[in-house]
Amino acid sequence: MARLFHVPLSPFCRKVRLSLAEKKIEVELVEERYWEQDPDFMRRNPAGKVPVLRLDGIMMSESAAICEYIEETRPEPSLLPQDPLQRLEVRRLVSWFDDKFHREVTSKLLYERVNKKMMKQGYPDSTNVKAGAKAIKYHLDYMAWLLDHRRWLAGDNMTLADFAAAAHLSSLDYISDVDWNRSDAVKDWYAKIKSRPAFRALLADQVSGFPPPRHYNDLDF
């Protein structure tokens, strides 16, 4: 069985978990306090980051590389289109959420409010929190624009781009930092992806000291 070293609210870990679940790959989840830099974990990934996945006898790191490996070795159901231009768009949007959205939103909301407390690094920086709360509006509006032109974020079919976005937004939703009333299109998109069997394990996550909001496990939120 595959083994994933992860942190429950890490969007990068969640993206890998969604990919594994969508392709029905059984995985053992091992929660890893990576910030403590345990020697055993550092041997698995000298970069000291999660996720780290053991699959096919290989220890692999970096969520983008992991998801690409899963896609190439387990191509069904496909999370990347066959057309090169469409694949380019999927990869562009994965990078958008894992880079720009993460830098402007996730790191300023989730990391300030949750990670700092878990790592005992003090209190949230209010300037960062305000910046993240402002930036997420721009990103939700951009998603709404995409969904006005497409069935899913990158085109007519659900792809890894949708999983990347949902991984970040589900982590933020756990701490009630997403205004779902800002866009009906985004809310409907999230309801669709949240109702998939691959999402069930994420909805069962519990983080000590941070109970989820009442709507979090509700598929008809």
Automatic annotation (TrEMBL):
UniProt domain GST C-terminal: residue ranges: 83-219
Keyword Transferase: yes
Keyword Transferase: yes
Subunit and partners: Homodimer.
Pfam families in the cross-refs: GST_C_3, GST_N_3
Entry superkingdom: Bacteria
Domain GST N-terminal: 1-78
GO molecular function: glutathione transferase activity
CDD domains attached to this UniProt entry: GST_C_family, GST_N_family
Keywords: Transferase
Gene3D superfamilies according to UniProt: 1.20.1050.10, Glutaredoxin
One record GO biological process: glutathione metabolic process
Protein name: Glutathione S-transferase
